[in-house]
Amino acid sequence: MRHLKGKIASQKASALYVRKPLLLATTQGRANMRQTGSPTVRRRRLASELRHLRERAQLTLEEVGEQLGWSATKLSRIETSRVGVVPKDVGRLLDLYKVDGSRQEELLRLTRDARKKGWWQAYSDLSSEYAAYIGLEAEAISMRSFAPLILPGLLQTEDYARAIIRAGLVLSPPGEVASRLEIRMARQELLTRKDPLRLWAIIDEAGVRRAVGGPSVMRSQFKRLLEVTDSPNVTLQILPFAAGAHSGTSGAFEILQFPERSDPDVVFLENLTDSLYVEGDAEVYRYTVAFDHLRAKALDPEDSRRLITEAAAQLG
């Protein structure tokens, strides 16, 4: 489950991130899976606005709950975006907080937008944690990713992804591998859409050397990595074994940045059975600094290409 820990200073985190020019390209793939915005981010933004309005009105959760006949728990879950909220309830909150006119209309419109469904919600077997992640990813303008064991999902070929998903879902019901694979391939449109996601990926050398799916699968995967490094919105670095101990020894992580200043950066962590979203100022800043240390230890993009080319040649 998610653990949402408050507002962060996204300017501090993004200041350490070197931006690259955008690649303008035609979005390809399934028309019904185009990335057109994320209700997940809108719900998160609405929750933050409602929390700030309550604080400005100098009311506690209990006081608001008492006046509206709600439990403090219900309001807390709304303010942390753990549940959705209907326009009628938002209207009651705004009346209590004395918000009217165009500002009220703006927030009610945001409420309606937050209740729309993303393309990924058509998959009934998708866990709420994974659905939340896809929603955040769909709205992000940049991602900093550290991958210590396998290649990032946005850079995987279909055959590589199938082998990874099949290996990870050892207790999955019939059809889940195919469903996860379809979703992962659809997510990759983020890199080729108009105003594409800016991806800075640091991959441990173990992720390159690990033979997933056999030589033919890896040859195609290496070709994909070399092709994607030609995209101006993608930066790829390999962290070599020779780098020794490093700031990412605790595991994989991703830092997502959003276009609106009111939407703070999020760090995403995942393990076999759970997901964690980190949003506190101090925690996100620590991951940002850790990523910068990884960038400094990793091979530069050109040397990284050479290592990938050498690994491909060793396959014969």
Quick rundown:
This protein is α/β, with parallel strands linked by helices.
Verbal overview:
It contains 13 helices and six strands. It has helices spanning 10-14, 39-56, 61-68, 72-79, 87-96, 101-114, 128-139, 158-168, 176-187, 205-209, 215-228, 281-297, 301-313, and strands at residues 142-147, 198-204, 234-239, 253-257, 266-270, 275-278. The protein has a six-stranded mixed beta sheet, sandwiched between helices.
Low-confidence stretches: 1-36
CATH fold node name of the largest domain: Endonuclease, Chain A
Total tally of structural domains:
2
Q: Portion of residues in helices?
A: 40-55%
- What does the largest sheet look like? 6 strands, mixed
Task: Provide mean pLDDT, rounded.
Answer: 84
Number of strands: 6
Task: Quote the beta fraction.
Answer: 5-15%
The backbone outline, from C-alpha atoms, is elongated
Could you state the order of secondary-structure elements as H and E?
Answer: HHHHHHHEHHEHHEEEEHH
For the record, the CATH class of the largest domain is Alpha Beta
Assign the CATH architecture of the largest domain.
2-Layer Sandwich
Name the strands of the widest sheet in spatial order.
3-2-1-4-5-6
Cα-to-Cα separation, first versus last residue: 44 Å
Q: Using the CA coordinates, give the radius of gyration.
A: 21 Å
- How many helices in DSSP terms? 13
Structural class: alpha/beta
